[in-house]
Fold each of these.
Amino acid sequence: MLAGIDAEFEHLLDAIFGVDAMKSFKRKRPADWICLLAAFESRKRAANPLSPTPLNIPLPFSFIEFYRKHTV
């Protein structure tokens, strides 16, 4: 079970893309899910509260394709 910022990130993804889509993505594409979490972890570690620039977390292309197919 995740706590703190990691759990909030997952809740944000659920809110944006839907709980069912995210559960399905985690189950069907576990390696791609890990890549998404690794990208988040990298950005999280690089975050600086004094920096005025936003940090973007790139979505893997496989997630975009999966989401398109899942929502059709």
Amino acid sequence: MATEQAPLYIGLISGTSMDGVDAALVSLGAHRCNVRATLSAPYEPELRERLYAASREPAAFAVDRLGHLDHWVGEAFRDAALALLRDSGVPASAITAIGSHGQTVRHQPRAARPFTLQLGDPHIIAAGSGVTTVADFRRRDIALGGEGAPLAPAFHHWLWGKSERGTAVLNVGGFANLTILPADESAVSGFDTGPGNSLMDGWCARHLGKAYDEDGAWAASGKVSDALLEQLLGDEYFRRPAPKSTGFEHFNAAWLDAHLAAAGTLPAADVQATLCEFTARSIADALGRYAPQTERLLVCGGGAHNGQLLLRLAAKLPRATVQTTDAVGIGPDWVEAATFAWLAARCLNRETGNLPAVTGAREAAILGSIFPGRS
């Protein structure tokens, strides 16, 4: 007798680095996620430049310009999904749904009227691919008093929650977030620890003209400034209790420049070394405060490829094994895309997708809105 195949989903996301769309084709079973095919589709340079400007200079972006970008990002996400289907040889008819996170350009969960804004019109994805698309995952959580982020801990808990030893999952994108999975099966928790790659990438682009510091080599060549490091760690965000989330609305180039002005002139490589140490230290401090018994740290996101960052994390966490999520079956570049494939499945199955202990929402809720494919 033939066994029933696990349903197929596609997850799409572009993170705060705004470098393009990550797409993953996955099959989802009972607490199992099998990544079948992946694709990374870089944004056109002009699109990336305009998204940066929209996120860093929001007052300068009129409604027409945002509408234009919403359509353009929708096209980029649609094209990434179609390319993934073409390259994998899987027909669109075999896909249950696409989960599209979109591109965050503004995240203000603590404003007088809280909001979060992700661009990438899901109608364009659904109409262009013919596949039912689920999108707009964050706003229901905010409507319930939550931060709308991070959402990945619910997926981490579903997939890796049953562990014989204290495990934490660290996603290092533009910003870093932790999922804490205690061995005693107490409630899972998670939050944004602060900057991940964003400040390092920005400094690298400013001084080397490169998008990122490959393997952390430039940071390794510099010397950490203890004075600057303590200034950066003195930010009130690190004293704020969880649940909490952050983004480039708070930690950005202007924030860094203000601290640099107070610290005095430093060699550019020393600033990069200090920023790498800052990311590692803020993560380690968060683990020390909320999960001191952590025995294993699983790292995903672009930061998983920064060898210098991983070395500094390991040095600060001598009790924990630091390894990438390759060790548990999903490559570090695809965990977030898989998350939104899973959230699409949760939405279609009318199952909750947020964890109130993580986001601060009043209750667990079904996340996402459904946009039908071809009838």
Amino acid sequence: MSSRLGPLDVECDAPTYTVVRACRELGLRSPEDVCWRRMGHFNRRWLALTTLFGGRAGRDASCSCGHPLPALETCNFVFRSGKSQSYMIGQCGRCHTVYWEES
């Protein structure tokens, strides 16, 4: 039966694993084991859903668990190569989903 199935499209909304793993050092709870949502993608989905269901777009955006979205803080990561990258990162206090965006 598996021979009839094609390849699966996997959508990963997290930054590189190096960044995810390093977030434990920043105090994030279980960063390797929780959902990651890029704010740009999350905002587009929220806008589409609120428009579809007649709500006011962009108003009262909250985490999928219903908790308010976390405040995002700027974190700068320096890699072994010497390259650095800044991200805005925050974690939901209830379900521990991590919200992020490149800054």
